[in-house]
Amino acid sequence: MIKYKHLALAVAVALGAQGFCTADQPRILNRAGGPDLQAEHWYSIRSLGEGEGRTIEVFVYGEIGFWGVTSGDFIRDLAEQDDGVSKVLVHFDTIGGDLFDGIAIHNTLRALGERCTGRIDGACFSAGSVAVCGAHRVEMADNALLMIHNPWTWAAGDSEELRRMADMMDKAFEGIVASYQHRALAVDDAELRRMINDETWLTPAEAKAKGFVDEVLGTAESPASNAALGKVLNRYRNTPESARKLLAQGDPEPTPDPEPAPQPDPAPAPQAPDTTALAAQLAADCAAVGLTASLPFLIKSSGLKSAEAVKEEFERAKAVHNACLVAKLPDEAAALIESGISGEVAKAKLWDKLAAKSGEVELDNRPPVSDLPQNTSFTPPAPSEVYAKRRNNASKGGTA
User: Same domain, yes or no, for 176 and 109?
Assistant: First the structure.
C-alpha cells in the first residue's frame, strides 16, 4: 500500500494525477507522461499450437504501468500460461510509462532465457525500450521506432524529500543503463549514457547497428496501427522528422501531422484601474467647476472603468453645466446631466425653455436705432428770403 506523507499527495492520486510521488514510493515515468497519451490498450496473452510447437504470444500494446499494462498483471498472466518449455513471443507497441514496471517486465523476460523473443511492432519508447531489452532476442519491424531517454517524474515535498528524490532519480538512471547493458551493445558505457541523456531516437537500422536489436523484419502485420501515435511524438523533446515519417509508413493513407502554426504572443493583460484614485480625481475636478452635486451620478455612469471613461463623462457633464450657467438656469444642470445628454442637446432644450417663458420671440437682424443726431440733406434758402431779411435788419439800424 502506498504511504503518502502529505494529504495533498493523497488527494492528487485519488483524482488520478499520475506521477505525483514521494521519495519513499516514486513513480518514474517516460517524459511524455500523462494518462491521456495512449488511451486505447490491447494487452493479451494467448497460447498457440501444441507440444513442442507451442508458443505463448503476448501483446503489450499501450502504456506500461498504472494507466495500462502493469508488471503485476503481466507476470501473473504469463505465469498462468507458461509451462517452462514453450517459446514466448512478446509484441511491443508502446509509448512507455512507469520505469519500474518496465524493469520488472524486463527481468521477467530475461529469466525466460533463450525461450523469449521480444518483437517491436511499432513504437517502443522509454520504459518500453527497457522492457523489450530483457528478451534474449529482439526483433524490430522495418517501419518501427525505438527511443531511449532519462527517467522523469513529478514530486512534492520539502527540500529534504526533493533531495532524496533527486538521489532516487540518479539510481533509476543506473537501473536503465544496467538494463540496456544486459544486451551485447555495440556502444561503450560513456556513449550509452550520452544517448540516454540526450533522448535518442533509433530507426531499425540504427537500433541494430548499436546492438539494441538482433534482426530487422519486414513490415509487421500487427493488429494495431501506429497512426494514432503521431500526436505522441509532439510531446517529446528531440523527435526527428525521420521518426514521424517512419511511423507514417505503416498507414494506408499517410497524413503527416501539420506543423503547428506559430501563435502570436498573448497580449498583456490589461491592468485593473485604481478606482480609488479615479474617484478622488473626479471629485477634485467636479469641485473645481461646481459639479459636486453630480459626483455620485458621474461615478456610477462612468463605472470608474478607466481614466478615459471618467474623463469622457466629466467633460459631458461640464458642457451641460456651462450651458445652464449661460442660460441663467443653473438649477436645471443636475437633471440634464443625469439624463445623459450632451452639451449641444442641453443648449437646445434650454433655448426651448427660455422661449416658452418669454412668449413669442421675434428675431430682427436690423441694427439697433441710434439716439445720436442723424445727418440730413442741406436745402439752400431762397434769394427773396435773404433780401427780405437784409431790409428788415436795415430798417432797424443794422448793417447788411
Answer: yes
